[in-house]
Specification:
The protein is an alpha/beta fold. It folds into two domains: about 230 residues, von Willebrand factor, type A domain (Rossmann fold, 3-Layer(aba) Sandwich); about 35 residues, no CATH class. It has nine helices and nine strands. About 5% of the residues have low confidence.
Length: about 290
């Protein structure tokens, strides 16, 4: 995988989308929470010591003037308002060319959603997973996002996907109902996908399934060897129209099963080809289910 960096122009385009996406982002927690974008009329429930993960603008400088110690106001939604973005970094995501590359495309989506969360001064976390997942502390503010993005695009795709184990482990760390965005090619066995959806069903769950154009329509002609990127196993195949038709049938059955499971567990389902315009995809993902 060739490592990429996000150009500033990307964030400028996301800013232009903010108004169009504001309804989705501000009503995710309707009935349970208040958005920090409402203003300064929210009741303060206490103070806590400043940590490097906090936005320095949240510091109460009056208290600092009296005590020479940095404290931040803690509002009710600080206990609950976090956007969790989970990006599959297994070997199967290391597939595709340039912007059609699954992991890179997913990283752009993850970055955009986290950036929109910072526009609401909400906390966010982007975590990558394969056969395990590292749980980090949620962050707030664009400066932390920019630091995280640099590492995100240097994350090597590696190991196999143990999606249900990783999601079960991660869900234990979520303290209250949250927005959870799961970005993956979802090529795991269907029983593991159902286990994942069941575990995350109490949250506002958005599933983003990424496939490349040639995964939708493979060129299977002649004799060739197919390699499983995660297990290393290979199989010799004679390509024909019958082979292609069978492949399409199996893929359609798999994706339809995921779609039905998402409906069963109340998740938003988004099937996206990585040759789609990234900004159109972001709009579609965040408007789906409104």
């Amino acid at each position: 995988m060739e490592y990429q960096y996000i150009e500033p122009e990307f964030f400028k385009k996301i800013d232009k989308l903010s108004i169009r996406l504001s309804k989705r982002m501000s009503t995710v927690y309707a009935g349970n929470h208040s958005s920090s974008m409402i203003g300064h009329g929210i009741d303060t429930i206490g103070y806590r010591e400043y940590s490097p993960e906090d936005d320095v603008r949240m510091v109460d400088w009056k208290i600092y003037g009296r005590t020479r110690k940095m404290y931040v106001r803690e509002y009710e939604e600080e206990k609950t308002m976090t956007t969790h973005i989970l990006l599959d970094s297994s070997k199967s995501m290391d597939y595709g060319n340039e912007m059609e590359h699954k992991y890179s495309y997913g990283a752009y989506i993850a970055t955009a959603i986290a950036y929109l969360a910072t526009n609401y001064n909400d906390r966010f976390m982007i975590s990558t997973f394969s056969d395990d997942i590292k749980i980090r502390k949620p962050l707030r503010g664009k400066s932390h996002l920019y630091q995280l993005v640099n590492n995100l695009f240097q994350q090597p795709a590696d190991n196999e996907t143990l999606i249900d184990d990783c999601m079960r482990k991660y869900e234990h760390s979520i303290k209250s109902t949250s927005m959870v965005v799961l970005i993956s090619d979802m090529l795991s066995p269907i029983e593991k996908i159902e286990s994942t959806l069941r575990v995350m069903s109490k949250h506002d769950l958005i599933i983003v399934q990424l496939l490349t154009p040639d995964e939708f329509n493979p060129n299977l002609t002649g004799d060739f060897k197919l390699n499983d990127m995660e297990t290393g196993k290979s199989v010799h195949v004679h390509g024909s129209k019958k082979t292609v038709d069978h492949y399409h049938t199996l893929l359609e059955q798999h994706n339809n099963h995921i779609r039905k499971l998402c409906s069963k567990y109340g998740a938003s389902y988004n099937l996206i080809s990585t040759d789609s315009d990234i900004f159109d995809s972001i709009i579609s993902i965040l408007h789906r289910g409104m």
